[in-house]
Write a structure and sequence with these properties.
The complex is a heterodimer.
Chain A (H helix, E strand, L loop, with lengths): L2 E10 L2 E11 L4 E5 L6 H9 L6 E6 L2 E2 L5 H6 L2 E3 L12 H12 L4 H15 L14 H14 L4 E5 L10 H13 L3 E5 L3 H7 L2 E6 L2 E6 L1 H6 L1 H8 L3 H9 L17
Chain B lengths: L14 E3 L3 H23 L2 H26 L8 H16 L4 H23 L5 H18 L11 E2 L8 H28 L1 H11 L1 H6 L4 H27 L1 E2 L1 H4 L3 H13 L5 H17 L5 H16 L3 H7 L12 E3 L3
Antiparallel strand pairs in B: 1-4, 2-3
Helix pairs in contact in B: 1-6, 2-6, 2-9, 2-11, 2-12, 3-4, 3-5, 3-9, 4-9, 6-7, 6-9, 11-12, 11-14, 12-13, 12-14
The chains are: A alpha/beta, B mainly alpha.
């Protein structure tokens, strides 16, 4: 297992945002995470990449305990992460943004880092904007930049936080292809997403989070069919409804339902 | 995930360029200019080099404050603590019979060493609290210093070790020291900002959390910058001491130094290497031209600061370069496609 999490918890004041979460992700597999707004999905990622410290629980990366490691240490150990709200280095060019990950995250020397950064930008289709200031990018390109930077860290574990939000139907397949490629290269992927049909294209397993706790976990189709999961989705806000329309009605063709069909 | 037509595969991989047309010209011009400045004591009257020592000290201070705030994102109003410390290092060296010019090096070391525990303390604070915290620490340095009778307590003392040196020679040596300090400071910051650390610092300035997520050791990078800036300010304080031959606590530990540094960097252009140099020259010119008019000098400083804030938000250097890619000392990376 690349990532093993046992009994992870975190509270803010009296509010428990992540409550006793355990999960495992192996090399070359993807875990999709769904759940209504406020379920603690982003906080979970913040705990995994070290931006937040856990109150309780244990995080193991490649069998090593990283529960107390800083965000920088975890990145160097192989955790790449994209933010739901992009956080570009506005005063640096797109290329330099990615270079930070290649130099400091992946620990490459100048020449290799330059090549790697160019490669990552090529992969996400952002190379033609390489010399523009990241602060001048539109939202969509900022999302591409988030992904490029995370890839530049050469992650063993890639954490994606609503990377598909705001993408058009035409743009989705390309993102899905990139994530698949990363996963098939042996990287473990955790992907939080409201656009469930995109998630179904990639996820090998699915986890539903509600009020900070694991509501259901298992085969993607089974999790989405779970009455409890459908209940929290129907009871959620408008943004969550995007997921509802995407959840296929019971028994209707589920893209990832056929076993062994993994591309 | 793209909305642009896929471009045909490039024939060669893009090349990373780290120079600009302006920087290649600057590199050629820099050496003769430095050599000319170095020869100045033989060419110009002592009062000219004396003035330039003041200017070089200001350039050094502005460069250091820019390193802190413009690149490290640390708005300090306590750098006078290290200026004072540097000045007193010369005085202490003098007391022990050490050559005051050697005291310049000791001042840098003393400031750098004291910066480490100071960093431990002030790094616990952020934003405005950090700014005030550094000021408080600088005040503590002053209050501790004036407790010592040997260095003249509250009234300060004179540097006596240079009285045997003829004034003209003394002026020339001080000038060369100041020139060397400026060349090393600007060159050092340039090389620092082109290094891995420079890349990390620029990232930290823009988005500290994202920098950490991308593997940047934020705290250690900031600590290095804080120590380097302290050493630079210590050196500036030592230069002030060997130049004026007198050290007064209320003057060297004055918070006015911080105001001057902020003024120079903000007027010139925060986060550029060229800007603070330009800002220092402008500040020095205002200081010299308006010196006879007393308080008017402060009024004009204020007016210039307001004008810059309204009209030149990226400083005078930003106004000069505007949208052109004129960087004499480029620290960034540009991709070029060879055809």
């Amino acid at each position: 297992m690349i990532l093993s999490v046992h009994g992870l918890s975190r509270s803010f004041g009296g509010l428990t945002v992540v409550d006793d979460v355990s999960l495992q992700v192996g090399a070359g597999t993807a875990l999709g995470v769904v759940g209504p707004n406020g379920a603690g999905k982003t906080t979970l990622l913040n705990l995994l990449d070290g931006v937040l410290a856990a109150d309780a629980g244990r995080i193991e990366l490649d069998g090593r305990d990283v529960t107390r490691a800083s965000a920088a240490q975890r990145c160097r150990a192989g955790v790449g992460r994209t933010h739901q709200t992009p956080r570009p280095f506005s005063g640096m060019t797109v290329f330099e943004n990615v270079l930070v990950g290649a130099v400091h995250g992946a620990g490459l020397s100048a020449g290799a880092a330059h090549r790697s950064a160019v490669g990552c930008l090529e992969r996400t289709g952002l190379l033609h904007r390489a010399n523009e200031l990241a602060g001048d990018l539109r939202l969509l390109d900022r999302k591409r930049l988030e992904l490029s930077r995370a890839l530049a860290c050469a992650p063993r574990l890639l954490l994606l936080d609503e990377i598909a939000g705001g993408l058009t139907d035409a743009e989705l397949p390309e993102l899905i292809a990139i994530v698949r490629e990363v996963r098939d290269g042996g990287t473990a992927v955790i992907w939080i997403e409201h656009i469930v049909h995109a998630l179904l294209e990639v996820a090998d397993r699915m986890l539903c989070l509600a009020q900070g706790a694991v509501l259901a976990e298992g085969e993607p189709a089974a999790v989405l069919d779970d009455p409890a999961v459908r209940e929290v989705y129907l009871g959620s806000s408008v943004e969550g409804l995007g997921g509802v329309t995407a959840v296929p009605a019971a028994g209707e063709g589920l893209p990832a339902a056929e076993p062994g069909e993994r591309p | 995930m793209t909305d642009v037509p896929t471009t045909p595969a490039p024939t060669t991989a893009p090349r990373v360029s780290r120079t600009t047309a302006a920087s290649r010209v600057a590199a050629v011009v820099a050496l003769p200019v430095v050599l000319l400045l170095a020869a100045l004591p033989y060419l110009a009257a002592p009062n000219v080099t004396r003035l330039l020592v003041d200017l070089f000290t200001l350039v050094l201070l502005a460069t250091m404050w820019n390193l802190l705030a413009g690149y490290g994102g640390m708005i300090s109003v306590g750098q006078q603590g290290f200026i004072g410390l540097g000045a007193y290092a010369v005085l202490v060296a003098d007391l022990f019979g050490v050559n005051p010019y050697l005291g310049l090096v000791l001042a840098m070391v003393a400031a750098a060493v004291l910066a480490l525990p100071t960093a431990l303390l002030v790094f616990r604070l952020h934003g405005g609290y950090f700014a005030i915290g550094t000021w408080v620490v600088a005040e503590v340095y002053r209050l501790v210093t004036v407790e010592f009778r040997a260095v003249g307590a509250g009234s300060g003392a004179s540097v006596t070790g240079l009285s045997a040196v003829p004034p003209v020679l003394r002026g020339a040596i001080t000038y060369w020291c100041a020139l060397a300090a400026v060349v090393v400071a600007i060159g050092g910051v340039y090389l620092l900002m082109r290094s891995r650390l420079g890349l990390a610092l620029t990232a930290i300035r823009d988005e500290p959390t994202a920098a950490a997520t991308l593997g940047v050791r934020v705290r250690s990078a900031k600590r290095i910058v804080f120590v380097v800036a302290a050493a630079g300010c210590g050196l500036a304080g030592a230069l002030i001491a060997v130049d004026s031959l007198r050290v007064q606590p209320d003057s060297v530990y004055s918070v006015q130094w911080s105001a001057f540094m902020i003024f120079m960097v903000v007027i010139g252009g925060l986060g550029t290497i060229e800007g603070p140099v330009l800002g220092a020259v402008v500040f020095f010119a205002i200081q010299q031209l308006l010196a006879p008019y007393g308080a008017w000098y402060l009024v004009v400083l204020g007016a210039v600061a307001i004008a810059a804030a309204l009209l030149a938000r990226r400083g005078l250097w930003g106004l000069v370069t505007l949208h052109r890619d004129v960087r004499l000392l480029p620290t960034g990376h540009r991709l070029r496609q060879d055809r």
